[in-house]
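Throughout our pipeline, every protein is held as a single compact record rather than as scattered files. The remainder of this section carries one protein's record, kept here as part of the documentation.

===
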Amino acid sequence: MALALEDTPPAPAAEQIVRFINSLRRYLLGLLLTAVALTIALYFVTPALLDLLQDHLDQELAFFTVAEPILARIKLALFTAVFVLMPVFTLLLWTALAKPFRIPVAQRKWFLIFTCLLFYGGAWFCYAITLPFGVKFLLGFETAQLKPLISVGEFVTFVSVFILGFGLIFELPIFMVFAARAGLVSRQAFEKNRRYAVLVISIVAALLTPTPDLINMLLMAVPLYLLYEMGIIALRLLRS
C-alpha cells in the first residue's frame, strides 16, 4: 500500500491548489482570533512605536478628525501584530502546502526558515534605507508657500504598507524554489526569461517605491533582481 501511494503521480496543479485552500481554511479562524488578541495587546505600546517611527523619519504629525489618533493606533497595532505573527503565518502556509505539493518535512523546515529571514530582511531594508530616502525626497518639494502637514493616519498607513510590501516582495527566491519543486515553473524557464523578469521587476519597483525618482526605484529594483538570480543559483545547487 505504501509503495502504491509513493508511485501515485502528483495531482494536477489546479487540484493541488484546491487542496491547499481547503487545508489552509481550517487554520484561518484560530489565526484571526490570535491576530485580534495580539492587536489589542499591542495597542497599548503603539505610542512608543509611533514615536520610534517619527524619530526615525524625522516627522511631526497632525490629526484632522477626532477619532484619527485612535484609528491610527489601531492600524499600527494591527500591522505590528501581522509583522510579529509572520513566522506563524509562514508555518501555516508551508504546512498547508506540504501535503498537496508533497513537500518533505526536511525541506519544509528550510522553506520556513528562509521565508522568515527574507521577509524580515526585506522589511528592514525598507525601514532602514528606502523609507528615509523616499520621505526625504517627497518632502523636498516644500516651499515657503507650501508646508507639509502630515496626517498621523496617512503616515501609519504609508509606513506600514511599504514595510510589509517590501517584506513580501523579498520572498521571491523562496517561491521560485517552491515553483520549481512543485513542477509549476522550471529553472530553465527562469533562466530563459531574464529579460521579462527585468521588465516585471522594474514595473513592480516603480509601483512600490514611495517616490517616482530613479534612485529610489533602483534601491528596490537592484535587490529584487539580485534575489531573482539568487533563486536561480539556489535551484542549480538543489539541481531542480
Notes: Residues 105-138 form the longest helix (34 residues).
